[in-house]
Records
---
Amino acid sequence: MKYTRDPAEAREEIRGHAVLARHYRVPALHARLRVPGGYLLAYDRLPSGRNLGLLLDLLNTHEPNSELLAYLQQLATAYRDVILTTARPADPDLVVRKLYWDRAAPGGRLDTYYNAADFLVADGILDIPISHLGAYTLNINGQQLQLDWATTLGWLRTHFSTTKPVWTAITQGDPTDVNLAHPLAWFDYDTAGHNSIAGEFANFLWYVSALGGWLVPTYNPAAFLDHPATFDHVPANTPQLGPVSIDRGTRTVHIDYTPRLTASRRTAVTAYWQQLVQPVAAHLWAGTDLADLLRPYLVMRILGVYNLAQLTPEDRLLLLVRLAEAMSPTFDPATYFSPLESPCPAP
């Protein structure tokens, strides 16, 4: 049973379910009822239980197993077939806009979170206003990077205001490890339809590598009450911040951190990349730099899910580090989403 207060969102859910059902396995929608204060949608209940029934549960293991590998292959095959069958370039106005274009538009989430806002990069750790960060060189694990906050926000808004066609395909749009059932099926349909393919890819990769194992259980633990094994793995999926220092003479900020991701989540990212992203890219974008295609969608997921100013100083700093890496000309998605854990370099 799904209760929705917003009538427009309920209509999008019903529409998205109908579109998705023609291409993917989804539970049947049996009833849509108008009730006081909103709408109630009644679906088939798929088999589930405590720590059972979702891709999340296959990822909440210490090591990947054959069940996870088989699931990932099935997932990639299903997506690859539908994407390559339904792929087409489309005007951005005809694309599902909720997660990207609407958030960048005037009055959208970027404005709600950050318009005219200034906050410290990391209170008590790095007491530099975010508006001044662009004046510093960031030495992150030995790599020299820059991050100008205002420029980044402006670039993101500009990207999602252009009318250049984007490659789309029929997908669920928000492919998180709680929206994918095990056995394989898809939940949550208000973003289903013709989605940006690059946005679909960036969403899954960022969710599996950062949101699902670290940020969402940290800031929205109620979402995992039926899957408490998630919390056992949060430390193993949380990057570890090392020494942070400022050289005022050279205006250089030194930040060391250790990326951390469980073997199961790393396996999921690698399989998705190799079995889905690369084959689709070979058909649609041969010779195109995938970093440039994925970057704006990844940056929107970093900035447009949680308001960075409301996170703990350490988590905020780690996300700003990840943002700087994503904005770097050397950004490499293949290693960015599946980092090899290594100790922080010596100071």
Note: The chain has a mean pLDDT of 95.
---
Amino acid sequence: MTMLEGIRIIDLTTVIFGPYATQMLADLGAEVIKVETPGIGDVSRYLGSGIPDPTMGSIHLTVNRGKRSIALDLKKPEDAALLRDLIAGADVFFHNVRGKAIARLGFDYAACRALKPDIIYVHGTGFGQDGPYADLQAYDDVIQAATGTTSLLPRVDGDPSPRYFPSLIADKIAGQFGAQAILAALVHKLRTGEGQAVEVPMFECFAAFMLTEHLRDAALEPPIGPAGYPRQLDPTRQPFPTADGHLAIVPYTPESTARLLTLLGSADLLTSPAFAAAKEKGQHMPLVYAEIARKTPARTNADWLALFAENDIPAMAARDLQNIKDDPHLVATGFFRRRTHPDVGAFDEMQPPVRFGAAPSRDLGFAPKVDGDGDAIRSELNRNERAR
């Protein structure tokens, strides 16, 4: 039995935030029915090259695997009625339609609760609905800018232009919060029998994530220092050059720093007046990083990694993204699995990273075509209606 077997989720979300959340729950065994726009489907289908089918892009294969798809035009009474039937038989209804728009369609919380009194009604929003940004649209770039994330790279490299972190990090973090919220609401429902409305706002979720370390001394009243975690913003904190590549080396504790500098033949730095003066101000790490960078070009990655492993120094090679599938650890743990999608062909699929001792691994479903399960779902609804 899978972890979430018997849980049905109606997923009216698009792009990355919502689909990423429900994909994680589908991996755990929940039945996720993806409701899409007829014809074009979710725009996430077009993220990544879709060959030979442009609606089956490579990112769609990841964030929508294991789901079923039905295409419904909710402005048509017959299709809206089908969605109402789906909600009436579901545990969770998750959408990221703006509040006023979902109410016009007839699927706000009150309407859905009338269909299923214990429904877990999840609204993925850009911004909390009791604030001045409530009706604004939100995408990853918008949220990165609004949370101050675009100010971080300029503080590292001195280029004053705000820049985005090169990942859909706000979408994915909000998706993690969304999956967590659904699981918590399901536990509450199991204990009490109660459903509830759940709001998952991207802005607040990502602000909580980023400010965990970066609010720092600005959290105090009055502030005793600026926002921003100095260790993360230190421009000398970079992978170090070696004879044949670069290494991430982390002298995190005083003990590991002393061991590392001893291995490098630079232990005298720790007793130098310059180091003592810098440490008094909490500014000694740039001196350590500069010394490491001066010494590491003398040997290869392999030489240094062997030496550091023997002496318990945290270090890893800085791998090129293009070669990540060849990482020996990921290969050994089966993180990537070669599969053949019936519509797309062979592809390498990431496996769920969390393992459960009480739930054996299983084959994950494939990402669906637009309305790929529509006929089957309609037939199931008809059979249920006849059985009443």
Note: DSSP finds 16 helices and eleven strands in the chain.
---
Amino acid sequence: MTTPSPVVVVTGANGLVGTAVCRALVERSARVRAVVRREGSAPAFDGVTEHVGDFADEGFAREVSRGADAVVTTVHPMGSPREVQHRVAVEGTPVLARAARDAGVARLVHVSTAGVYDRSAGVGDVAEDGALLPEGSGDYPDTKNATDAALAEVGGLTTVLVRPPAIMGAGETSVWNALRPQQIRDGDRRANPAQTWPWVHVEDLADLIADLATGAVPAGDDAARGPVAGGTTAVIVAGEPATWRDYLGTVTEALGVEPEWTDEPAWTGQLRTDRARGWGWAPRVSLAQAMDELRRGLTTRS
């Protein structure tokens, strides 16, 4: 008997993470409903169908969720005014979550961020139960924390909050491969070289998300083995240890400018990935490979 291909809804399907997730899902024989705001912008992969609309619209959310097995949400307008981040993420994402629940969708995978954790100087290693940043820590962590909390309140779903740090990967919209280097080019080059720079490559991140969305990581009652069935489970996903000397040093060298190293207090702990590894995930892209991709991209553009 042939097992039917899972149907997965992906919001922000034309973004850096969304595109990688669509690709990883197709590789796992899933059928993907790619949600985008602009017609013709969805990834052109076999098995992907474009759905143009606003996932915060209840009617559209119900329509795109009907008959789906999982929903993956990747949209957060980082860098936009706080009210926009709040409207799109904190208010909008739960609309889709409720529609998915009502449609009988089994699993919601939400791309959160490791930036919700307190990583002040002196804080050691951080796991999923680490202290969250308090309200007032900034528009981005505040609204990401609020979105996570709002999704946890929806109920009736197995919800996974995937928490990556800096996401590496080539692309015009890539924060760490394109946008952040532009800021560095413009003069923002200060950092303690020993400060931890946690990261993950977008392909490794997409692998975990796709495995979660297709049920390759089964739900149960032990978060060490998989998402808690019917509950909300956070999971940190990060690559091998790195520091700002690795990242900023690579960018400044490629751009032909000098970094401004400081000795200010900084976090030197690590993001613990025991939970993700217990779920069968392991990064495939090494730091050397990620930095080489970064270097080649910057050299090509400069």
Note: The mean pLDDT is 96.
---
Amino acid sequence: MKTISIINLKGGVAKTLTAVSMAHILAVFHNKHVLIVDNDKQGNTSKAFRVHSYDTKTIADVLTARRIDPHEAILHTGYEKIDVMPANMNLIRANLEVMMDSTRPQQTRLRAALDAVAGEYDFCIIDNAPDINISTINALVASDDVIIPIKIDEYAFDGLAELKEQIENTRDDLNPRLRLAGCLITCFQRTEADKQGEEWLKAKPEYPVFDTHIRYSEKVTESTFAKIPIVEYSRRSGAAIDYVAFVHEYLERGKK
């Protein structure tokens, strides 16, 4: 199972859209079994797949309960090949509880849970909160690849160096297989600011950038209200076309 963390320390950069779209495209277009882990207390990925609830176990239980079977916190979706480990506001409590529990390892709990189900999936995609807390560190420790969605604006690159440093520290100390797969430009519009921002980022060798960028589309907002992945909601929209191309590019890069 290849595990991918979607993360940026900024909000509003299309992290959840990217996680949901990748999962949907891998499952529907590439016939892959996908587990998507909602690692954000807002639970937007859980809501997107209509499994948000306070009546079922979530990632909070996986991080805090002893000897839990991770299957208890995995829910089926309306898509045959997509399952979700959901999240809700209980993740706030779970982060605090993990930090206060020094009786067992804190950073490897999610990895242990995912290892237990790895044989059932081809890919695991983790949608992370815009923060570095113990649950996001757990995600990095459990991941093979990191993808950083970036929306070009005045503050686009704030926190990028700090996030890269956290990735490198995690690789050095806890997860030698972790790599920054690349930055993904999202919400792209053909303005001079967006073009210059993309060119600036591509000129930085320390930040690999995917060739595909995701164009801005009003259909994206509509799809979130409908709780339907963008490629299913509006196949001909620029964002849908670009996400299909991006997933293809990611898979092709992985073969090299």
Note: The chain has a mean pLDDT of 93.
